[in-house]
């Protein structure tokens, strides 16, 4: 009888441990997903800002060069 009780307890402990590992894995994956999303948003913002700077610089250069021949 005691052996049956210990076997049941062992199975409960193993089941609980497996659930804890699964939950930890899911939490870790969620952190990775959030970090990936944040990184992608940062890269998108960097690309947008860079393109705006390039466009502004090109526009200023164009204005400067078009004014050279008029003087």
UniProtKB/TrEMBL annotation:
GO biological process: positive regulation of fat cell differentiation; positive regulation of transcription by RNA polymerase II
InterPro entries referenced in this protein's UniProt entry, alphabetically: ADIRF (IPR034450)
Name the UniProt record assigns to this protein: Adiposis regulatory factor
Species name: Papio anubis (Olive baboon)
Gene: ADIRF
Any one Gene Ontology cellular component term annotated for this protein: nucleoplasm
């Amino acid at each position: 009888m005691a052996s049956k009780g210990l076997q049941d307890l062992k199975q409960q402990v193993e089941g609980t441990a497996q659930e804890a590992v699964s939950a930890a894995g899911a939490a870790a994956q969620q952190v990775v997903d959030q970090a990936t999303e944040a990184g992608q948003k940062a890269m998108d913002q960097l690309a947008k800002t860079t393109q705006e700077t390039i466009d502004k610089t090109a526009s200023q250069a164009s204005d400067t060069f078009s004014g050279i021949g008029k003087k």
